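User: Can you model how adenosine-5'-diphosphate sits in this protein?
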Amino acid sequence: MRPEILYPLFRPVGALKGVGPRFAVLLERLTGPHVVDLLWHLPTGLIDRRFAPKIAAAPSGQVATLTVRVDGHAPPVLPRQPYKVRCTDDTGLLELVFFHARSEHLLRQLPIGQTVVVSGKVERFHDTPQITHPDAISPVEARDQVETVEPVYPLTAGLTPKTLRRAVQAALDATPDLPEWLDPAYQKRQNWPDWRTALRTAHAPEAESALLPTTPARQRLAYDELLANQLALALVRLSQRRQPGRTIAGDGRLRRQVLEALPFRLTACQDRALQDIGRDLADERRMLRLLQGDVGSGKTIVAFMAMLNAIECGHQAVLMAPTELLARQHLQSLTPLAASAGLEVALLTGRDKGKSRDALLGRLAAGEIRLLVGTHALFQEDVTFADLGLAVIDEQHRFGVHQRLQLSDKGRAVDVLVMSATPIPRTLTMTAYGDLDVSRLDEKPPGRHPIDTRTIAIDRLDEVVAALQRRIKDGAQVYWVCPLVDESEVVDLAAATERYAILRDRLGDRVGLVHGRMKGPDKDAAMAGFAEGRLDLLVATTVIEVGVNVPKASVMVVEHAERFGLAQLHQLRGRIGRGDQASTCLLLFEAPLNETAKARLRILRDTEDGFLIAEEDLRLRGAGELLGTRQSGLPGFHLADLAEHGELLAAARDDARLIIDRDPNLLTPRGEAVRALLYLFERDAAVRYLRSG
Ligand code: ADP
Ligand code: MG
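Assistant: Here's the modeled complex, given as structure tokens:
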């Protein structure tokens, strides 16, 4: 249960004073449903209204707060003209300019003959100083309230800066003092304020330098968030460790048969990974290992060998994929491998229903099915194994830590191998997996051709299509990937459908379309048409991103490449270059590109090393961008920026480990404070592991 002290922070934003239902909806969209979400919405700029010169001394282009006398109003004569209010001080004239103004309102705010305080950006028009739509107008008595520093927050349409500022202020006012969860010595060494002071300071920047991620206040807040993240992972890990594992060490009989049937030899890094895994499986403790390697680096066979090891010991093994498409593809590639050891592979997805599903579940529960491939459908409660020994999870970043556990709960002390093709940098691996053991496949199987990657402005689309026509004539198959437009799939879909229509128009009916909203069988049909060569070109949204394998596809066009994450582009590109022809990847971008965007695309052109690409991307864009949840599924942070706070992450990891070592049930006073921290960052699930452990 969430501690009572946090209740005020988890009330809906609409419960704040001064936030009506209309603004509540906008705030919710911008920051989140709860008061606490407003706290995490830190300012990105500031306006200093303390600068209060005389009119003549106010520089153009700068915000100033001026104390002036209202001399007269000049309503517009012609419809399009602005309404002007003339003001003076003893150094000269200032015009206040309003468009679409209502004169009664202005006469009330700026009565003739009164002295008022106005604040806004001063410009000069024919040498006359002007402020157009002042940000603040108030009677001279309220001057102190105007001459302040105003934080500037990212906004959303319909929300005014003032409303948002007030809401944040109300949220800060509702914020309680919390017990300190930091180690006092560490806090002192870092010179960090307490949590509530840190929040208030971060929301009240006095100078530009206060917006930097390196201020004590911002560092502290970032650390808190990272600590919550690392603690949650450590607790999950602990609960897994608490359950005794078992040893899996098969006699190698099945593995030998499969290896003999393989048309290739394993690479050195595949062998190394298998040794790592073999050691984990043989160990009493439960395995939790990440097998990381670029698309096409040969993870599948490694995972399959591990599965065979479990089967040699009489257990069952399951491979779980994030999509139906991938599950089917795994089934396809594993079936012949399994056959060479006299084994069958079964498939369970969301499409299995009714009697056939019941029959399958029955055989699974009876242990007749030894090898199973599936999707999320595996999580369903009625899916039970006779004796699950190993769970392999492909493309783990799409599943949460929680789901990983759910699957491993399906057996007694199930060992877990996670496969990821996302070449995420070390720091990010840590936030997503904590102290997971990692094996990397960093060398490609022999015989791969490098991919010729080029960047082209989208206004040369005609040339691109003409070039594709020539390549298709020579027998090439082409992926055409449509951009991520925004969060809404509907818009993506519209873009893809439109492109499909245009390309069909130009290239004829051997053009197909596949997207995430399609019904399963339609999607399969389109994919199969492409895989079997009945289609020359496949227009796709990012559903083809992971895993799909069509060796004859040798050209890929990515539209609006600048909108994709680099890691994602790299993964997409991995769909080609799998066969024996030379491959080309065309990254279409919309000009002009800024320097960062140019540098990013250049990296892709220059290297095929996924880990290098990921590190560079992190450096160029910062983790915030890289971690766009939609693109990676990795945990997003509100306060921590991994490009800036990488060192804090390492410290948080060590701290989390220490806390859990000393006080595994979080029962000491510091433990209590740490619990509050976990709830504050909504790691409620992690606390539950604590309780049940
Ligand atoms: P990943 O899952 O890492 O994207 P796959 O396991 O699908 O990669 O392997 C890609 C292709 O490379 C498959 O066709 C596979 O048979 C082949 N392959 C795997 N290991 C080797 C190897 N050691 N030598 C040659 N080909 C290999
Ligand atoms: Mg794969």
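A couple of observations from the model: The chain has four domains: 4-46+155-211, 50-147, 253-441, 451-607. The chain has 26 helices and 21 strands.
User: Helpful, thanks.
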